[in-house]
UniProtKB/TrEMBL annotation:
Organism whose genome encodes this protein: Rubrobacter taiwanensis
Phylogenetic lineage: Bacteria, Bacillati, Actinomycetota, Rubrobacteria, Rubrobacterales
Domain HTH arsR-type: 25-119
An example molecular function term from Gene Ontology annotations: DNA-binding transcription factor activity
SUPFAM superfamilies assigned to the protein according to its UniProt record, in alphabetical order: Winged helix' DNA-binding domain
Keyword set, alphabetical order: DNA-binding, Transcription, Transcription regulation
Record's protein name: Transcriptional regulator
Domain of life: Bacteria
Record has Zinc-finger as a keyword: no
Alphabetized PROSITE patterns for the sequence: HTH_ARSR_1, HTH_ARSR_2
Amino acid sequence: MASEGVCEVDVIHAEAVRRAREALPEEEVTRRATEIFGLLSDPTRSRIVYALSVEELCVCDVAAVAGLSISAASHQLKRLRDRGVVSFRKEGRLAYYRLEDEHLRRLLEDCVGHVLAERGATSA
């Protein structure tokens, strides 16, 4: 009995393989993209990034939005900052964070839109 979703014969479509290989980004680019997806795979960090895509927030505001202690929010922001996802500026005694890359905002919006559309399709 053939397994579902598995080829039943060994055939390589050389042109399709060539086109797919040519389209692949360099390994370093793929590694970096995987790091970003890894950071965003945590729901708390995703919520923080999404909130920062709306507007710049101080650490206390990020903590309130994400339902975290200030210390926990600061820890998550440091992880995001170390990977270049967010940056901050100081204003007096406050540290304001912002999303560093517009691409991430669009990526999150597309992903959330996909989930909402999927949810709508299953509830119809």
